[in-house]
């Protein structure tokens, strides 16, 4: 399909940008695209994504972001409800005294049937997903899941609403978003942005060698 004039302008802007500012160019134009869509169902310019949302059980933003992603026409895995009959994994279902485990007990309990079932749900969902989203604040498990997407070469977006401790290695992510609107905009051009970013990083690495 031939490029529209406005799409060609975006690509030319990105091609002329430095690795430090090209992403802001792509995201600004994606936000303009979102503003042009009058209804959530009018999503023909976008490709529907299969998203894995990694976060904390205690994150109050998780339900709202799940709803926003689905409203935008994407499918998203909700670890709170992996299936209609499944309310998600909890260590309390393995052992009510789980917080007092020794390292040896913890290692042993990873083999518990409930642990194996919970892990299988999340792992299979990660493998099915073509895009990862890390919603802050969250802990070790969510960051391991985010690392899977980077290692698998899949796009990873980090969503940060509140102030948090800076983390240098978040530069591995495809993009850091500061709102639901920014994330939905980024998902509208995820393939172009992800491919362009990987090429920019590769070019930057070659220059330093």
Characterization of this structure:
The protein is of the alpha/beta class and 209 residues long. It has a single domain, classed as Rossmann fold (3-Layer(aba) Sandwich), CATH 3.40.50. 48% of the residues lie in helices and 10% in strands. The chain contains eight helices and five strands, in the order ααβαβααβαββαα. It has helices at 5-16, 22-36, 62-71, 103-109, 113-128, 140-151, 180-188, 190-208, and strands spanning 50-54, 75-77, 131-135, 156-159, 175-177. It has a five-stranded parallel beta sheet, sandwiched between helices. Helix 1 packs antiparallel against helix 2 (22-36) and helix 2 (22-36) crosses helix 7. The chain is globular, with a radius of gyration of 19 Å. Mean pLDDT is 82; it is low at 6-11 and 37-45.
Could you give a quick summary of the protein structure above?
Helices cover 48% and strands 10% of the residues.
């Amino acid at each position: 399909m031939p490029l529209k004039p406005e799409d060609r302008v975006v690509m030319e802007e990105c091609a002329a940008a430095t690795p430090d500012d090209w992403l802001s160019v792509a995201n600004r134009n994606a936000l303009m695209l979102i503003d042009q869509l009058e209804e959530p169902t009018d999503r023909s310019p976008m490709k529907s994504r299969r998203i894995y949302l990694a976060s904390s059980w205690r994150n109050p933003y998780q339900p709202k972001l799940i709803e926003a992603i689905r409203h935008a026409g994407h499918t998203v895995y909700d670890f709170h409800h992996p299936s209609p009959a499944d309310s998600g994994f909890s260590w309390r279902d393995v052992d009510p005294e789980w917080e007092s485990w020794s390292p040896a007990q913890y290692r042993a309990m990873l083999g518990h049937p409930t642990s194996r079932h919970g892990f299988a749900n999340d792992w299979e969902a990660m493998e099915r997903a073509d895009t990862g989203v890390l919603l802050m604040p969250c802990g070790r498990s969510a960051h391991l899941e985010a690392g899977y997407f980077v290692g698998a070469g899949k796009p990873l977006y980090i969503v940060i609403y509140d102030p948090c401790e800076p983390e240098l290695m978040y530069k591995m992510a495809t993009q850091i978003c500061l709102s639901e609107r920014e994330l939905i905009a980024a998902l509208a051009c995820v393939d172009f942005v992800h491919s362009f970013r990987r090429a920019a990083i590769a070019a930057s690495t070659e220059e330093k060698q």
